[in-house]
Amino acid sequence: MGYETIKLEKGMYHVAGKSFTQVLESMDPSQNYAGSELEGLDAYQRQLKRYGIKVSGAGSDSVEKFFNTADSSALFPEYISRAVAQGINEANSLNEIIATKTMINGLDYRSITIPADDETQSLKRVAEGAAIPTTTIKKQEKLVKLVKRGRMLEASYEAIRFQKLDLFTIALKQIGAYIAKTQFNDAVGVLLNGDGNENAATAVALTTSGSFGYADLVKLWSELGDFKMNAIVADSGAMGKILNLSEVKDAVAGLNFHATGKLVTPLGANLVKSAALPENTLLALDKNCALEMVCAGDVMVEYDKLIDRQLERAAITSIAGFSKIFADAVKKMAV
Fold first, then answer.
1. Between 91 and which of 41, 176, 180, 244 could a Cys-Cys bridge form, CB atoms 3.0 to 4.6 Å apart?
2. Exposure of 235 by Cβ count < 10 A (0-12 exposed, 13-18 middle, 19+ buried)?
């Protein structure tokens, strides 16, 4: 079966455990196109090519092009999902603070906890015949709290049918940006307050009361122990204090910031600003060990009305939650 002969229908969005694109790939594997002019396109992109739908660029088509045939209309919800997902990826700061992303097919998920104290983590000398010390990995007592985030897209088909797809994509990407921002705030909240399993961030006191300085960054680095301080999340007040440290304002240290706008502290930790933190608060963490993101599927789009040309209210949602992996991989400081 080639991509030209696939019968597209609404039921392809109903296959359990598979996205629309995955269903298409199972019917029309991309590896079959190695060495051809279609190499590099996934199954969905080949369907766009089949119906001559161009979704970006100066020559992009209008929304109406999706609805020229009953088959091609089934491609529209996936277009919306991809545009929203693109907006999430472009606006997302989560990659700066999460260690891993877990996809699940349900709404109940229990993560694991791993002890990180010297007694359980150190590799001790084992005498002949003696028992080898054990590190026990346990399930968390409480389930990960998953939160549904989304936006309702309201528009009639008549209102958008002649709009160019590249312009419509911009509006959809902005919805994705809203979702990304809120999920990032959720993640910061878990880093700060814990995930319900008594693992809130431990507070580290200033070296000199009421006076934040470079020595406090060094203290945070030290308090993380064997974990690396490779990310700092701060509210605007704390961020300003960090950037105004003389060590950070050093001409050489500031070259990267002036050239690229990327904030890096002298200790090598990426700086990420967040309005979700209390005033003048920062979190120092090892992004490779601190946080797990749990997602119940990809971006979801209510598709029936979209396919039937009655786009009046379309729900675009994403379900995600966050769980701490190593509680000691995050420290907080009030500056």
1. 180
2. buried
Structure tokens at 91: 């606006």
Please write the tens of the pLDDT for every residue from 122-133: 666 777 777 777
Candidates 6, 194, 185; CA nearest to 94 is: 185
Amino acid present at 245: L
Over residues 118-147, the mean pLDDT reads 76
Per CATH, the number for 94-155+187-335 is 3.90.1690.10
Structure confidence by residue, pLDDT tens digits, 268-311 = 888 999 999 999 999 999 999 999 999 988 888 776 556 555 55
For the chain, give every domain's residue range: 94-155+187-335
- Give the confidence band of 255 by pLDDT, cuts at 50, 70, 90: low
Between the CA of residue 273 and those of 35, 61, 97, 305, what are the distances in Å? 45, 38, 12, 39
Helix (H, G, I), strand (E, B) or coil at 284: strand
**Separation CA 9–CA 270 (nearest Å):** 46
**One-letter amino acid of 212:** F
pTM (two decimals): 0.81
Cα–Cα distance between 252 and 58 in angstroms, integer? 42
